[in-house]
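[job 4471] stage=fold_predict status=RUNNING
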Amino acid sequence: MDLTSARELADVDALGQAALVAAGDLTATELLEAAILRVEATRGLNAIVTDLFDPGRDQAKTVARGGGPLAGVPFLLKDLGASLAGAPEAMGSRALRTHVATENAWIVDRYLDAGLVVFGKTNTPEWGNHCTTEPSLFGRTANPWSDGVTPGGSSGGSAAAVAAGVVPAASGGDGTGSIRVPASCCGLVGLKPRRGRTSFAPGGGHGLEGLVNEHALTRTVRDSAALLDAVAGSAPGDPYTAPSSTGFLAALAAPVEGRRILTTSESPFPGAGTHPEVAAAVHAVAGVLEELGHHVDAGAPTVDPDAVADAIAVLHTVSNAQLHAFAKEHLGREPREDEFEDSTWVMIREGFHTTGVAYAEAIGAVHAQTRRFVASMGEHDVLLVPTLLTLPPPYALLDRPRGTTRAFFDVEFATTGWTTLANVTGWAAISLPLGVSAEGLPIGVQLMAADETVLLQLAAQLEDAMPWWDRHPAAWIGV
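[job 4471] inference complete, writing structure tokens
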């Protein structure tokens, strides 16, 4: 297959590519080779940090026609939270630069069972700590829309690869916005599932006391729904699970009932303003939803922003101290300070001194703020807010040390605003590329609800009413 044909396939989403395999028009091997050509054409983005081309070729040979709705589709894994046995897994950390995974993550087995062809791993900041992707280990990932702004993080490598047309979908994880922030920066669909929708087996029961969720970055709503169908479920021994679904992809074809939607463009954190173009995008989407028959009210749920920020900071310090212990075990020695990012070292150092009482109080604060948030939603079942309060931010902003972990998150939340509230509450949240700035940069608009089906149905309506499929970034498939 030549590069011209490979580039033409970039405009076919995951379900469309799988349909080509199912019909016998192309083989999984041909799809993979086309994707590899697109990888080589976009190396300058630095989105992919580990090539797994030969294992991918071996897997592609085993994909049979009719193997499932995603069988044969080339797929990339984020180099964090998506362990693949025998593959390097540095997690963006110099301390883990020689680490190799010994087992598959449960979610990766679900991807493989669905027939997705894994052929690489994508760049991520150290341990997912940052909402930008510029680790010192692998270097920064470029945003296909502009080399002057970050692709977001921590799933920035996956987002850049999908936005550039390398693959139709790639995996991601989200602890304070790490799927939705890069979706907003790169003009993609980014769904954070509700808590418990997928499993963290076999390595853990949950991530960051339930803040973290795993899913993917896509260009279409239907691909996000199909991928969620592939990975939804639980493993034996999971601490909790989400209610079962009759099928997320099938739900897109069902009639959509009118929803009561609460909306604001203001930040839940004091002192953080919203860029006028971002606010205008949210207001425009509110108007379209009203035209579609939904009831939209101005307003916002409330939380104690200091309690939220303090809790997030404490949970991250403990998580980083635990990862430091993991690095120590891997290295067989005490890791050096210069083997970590400066901001990571601040979190590690604080984590060494975080007490059990402080940790328990942080967990309690998360639960208390969840109840306050849900109660203040009243009769509304959907929240419409910005994904980012700003346009895609510059590099060297969201990964710098600020003296304390709390000060670090104060800077992050002044940019991300509402994203972390979905992680705190466990609600599902989706970022959609529904706005464009005067300079042509994507603007994400975010919907939150207790269940993914509601969000996916609304997202599909908005995709029809405000289509984004024909928008391509400057670095589209290396052109």
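[job 4471] summary: The mean pLDDT is 97.
[job 4471] exit 0
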